[in-house]
Structures are given as C-alpha cells and as structure tokens.
Amino acid sequence: MRPSRYRYLLLMTSDPVSSDPVALSIEGGVRLLQISDTHLGAADGDALLGINTDQSLQAVLSLAASDGRSADLMLVTGDIAADGDLEAYQRLEHYLESFTAEEGLPAFWLPGNHDSPDVSTRYPRRFVRAIEAGAWHIVMLYSQQPGKVGGFLSDEEIAILNSAVARANRESRHLLVALHHPVQLIGCDWLDEQRVANAEQLLSAVADCNNAVAVVSGHVHQATDQVFDGVRLLTAPSTCVQFAPNEVEFKVDQVGPGYRWLELLPDGKVLTDICRVDARLFPANTERQGYQ
Ligand SMILES: [Fe+2]
Predict the structure, then answer these.
(1) Which of 31, 134, 137, 218 is the S-S candidate for 173 at Cβ 3.0 to 4.6 Å?
(2) Model confidence at 157: pLDDT above 60
(3) Per residue in 216-252, is it b (16+ CB within 10 Å) or e — as a string?
(4) Least confident segment among 14-18, 191-195, 238-242, 274-278
(5) What is the average per-residue pLDDT within 258-279?
(6) Which three-class secondary structure state does DSSP give residue 79?
(7) Percent of the chain with pLDDT over 90
(8) Would you put residue 183 in left (φ > 0), alpha (ψ -120 to 50) or beta?
(9) Which of 221, 245, 226 has its CA nearest to residue 183?
(10) How many Å lie between the centroid of ligand 1 and the Cα of residue 106?
(11) Residue 88 three-state SS
(12) Cβ atoms 75, 32 nearer than 8 A
C-alpha cells in the first residue's frame, strides 16, 4: 500500500449522532476498503461455526495490506462483535492499529444487530456519521433494533440521511450510504426477511440526490451487486463465515473470508470487486442450522 499521505480533520467531537462530517483530505475519487461482520467474541480465538474469527479477520487484513491499489479509508459495516462484548472492540482497535497506522488509513465503524447498543459512545472517533471524501459524501446509518435481528431506520436515522442528501446536493458531491442491513432483496428468503423493514424510506430520501448514489451493507455474509432505480446496491462478504446465495433457509457457503474493494470515481461511477482469503484455510462447520 502507498505511504501515508492522509491527513484528516475531525470536525465532530463526542456527539455520536452529530451529522457534522469528518473531512478527509482526498481530491476527486475515493478508494475504499469495506470489511464487515467480523463477529469477534469475548476472547481471542472464539469461534463462529468452527472459524476462529480473530484469525480470519487478521488473514483478511493481511490480504488487504498486500492489495497494491492502496485505500484512502476503511469502513467496517457492523456485527463487529459476536455478542457485544467490549473486548471484541478492543481487539478490533488493536488489529487495526497495526494495519492502519503505517498507512495513516482512517477507519470508521457502524453497529450491527450483534453489537453493543452503546458502543458508538465508547468509540466516538470510529463511529462517525458523515465523512467528506473528495467528490463523495459518506453517511453512516444505524439500522439495528433492540432485541431484533432485522433492520429498521428510525426517524432520527432518516433525518440524518435527509441532511446528508441536502449536504451532498449543496456541495455537488455524490452520496455513499453505509449501513449494516441491506435495503434490497438479495435472493435468500431467510435473510431477506431481515432487510431494512422501511427500505422505501431510504430509497425515497436518496431519490432527491442530484448526483450518483450507492449503498453498501453487511449482515448477509455474501457479496451482491444490484442497481435499483439508478442506485447501486452492494453487500460485502464477512471476514469469517459466509452464507450461501439463493437459499430459502440458513446455509453456510464454503468460500473464503474477504473484503469489498470500492473505487468511487469523481463522475459518480463505482468500480468494485471482492478479494478473498483461500477458503481452505478457514473451513466452516456446515452441520449447524444457525449461528445465533
Ligand atoms: Fe447482522
């Protein structure tokens, strides 16, 4: 990865729901690493369906470190912890320190349904709500609901989104929306039930954008890529267990842990691909019928 040239100015303080953006000194296009659904347990080495989630995350980060394309920032799109244990976030910080420090790579997180409800207040520099990055404005939405697996955007989240749309229009930027649950159907019945229940509110809000819009999510532990009403809708693999595509019920897939690479171009186009670790290094237990 290229040497550090990134300087970023934190404009927000400790308010976790502030929509004041973090301003990154990036011109034009943005190169972004998305990692998701790390599911780190309370203890280093805890496993999810037989996969040591600390080791698989570290393997994914090593792979990303050898990606010659050089990212400008990293987004972590939720389910950082398997059960909301604070030790999980401490270990993610630790793993990212070595990964990001050398590159000066900013990394921002958002919560998923497995995360602690108050983790955003503990790590305010990670859980930012808006990022100015070159030709793009990035908004981080929270879609988790207390005690539920599925996603929903509260009035407060829709207000944050509306303000991001207004800002992107005012500043003539394209808009990237990041959230844990997808808004789109991906073709797995058991996961489609868990998508953002009021997805139409998000799609209606972003329809007011004057420029390009893309939405990146996690939760479904598989890579999907669609366009709906001109909006690019993407999901990312997990850094641990993968779920099989086009299944009615829970099914594990035997493809490797990975990350999504995104290049957000100045003209609004999005180039993207998936990079994976060798699946044979992290075989998942396929006997289990769920992972809760
Ligand atoms: Fe999730």
Answers:
(1) 137
(2) yes
(3) bbbbbbbbbeeeeeebbbbbbbbbbbbbbbebeeeeb
(4) 14-18
(5) 98
(6) coil
(7) 86
(8) alpha
(9) 226
(10) 23
(11) helix
(12) yes
Please enumerate in sequence order all residues whose Cβ is within 8 A of that of 268, keeping only pairs 6 or more positions apart, or say none: 135, 174, 211, 212
- Reported as a single tens digit per residue, the pLDDT across 33-49 is 999 999 999 999 999 99
Alpha-helical segments (H) within 68-186: 86-101, 119-122, 155-170
C-alpha of residue 220 to centroid of ligand 1, in Å: 7
The tokens for 252 are 């594990």
115 CA distance to ligand 1 centroid (A)? 9
Whether 71 contacts 33, CB under 8 Å: yes
Which tens digits make up the pLDDT trace of 160-195? Answer: 999 999 999 999 999 999 999 999 999 999 999 999
Look up tokens 């996969």; give the residue.
51
> Ligand 1 centre from 236 Cα, in Å?
12
- Pairwise CA distance, residues 150 & 88, whole Å: 22
How do residues 80-108 score in pLDDT, each as one tens digit?
999 999 999 999 999 998 877 666 789 99
Q: Is the pTM of this model over 0.85?
A: yes
Going from the Cα of 210 to the center of ligand 1, the distance in angstroms, rounded, reads 31
Q: Domains plus CATH for the chain? A: 18-281 (3.60.21.10)
What's the 82 CA to ligand 1 centre distance in angstroms? 9
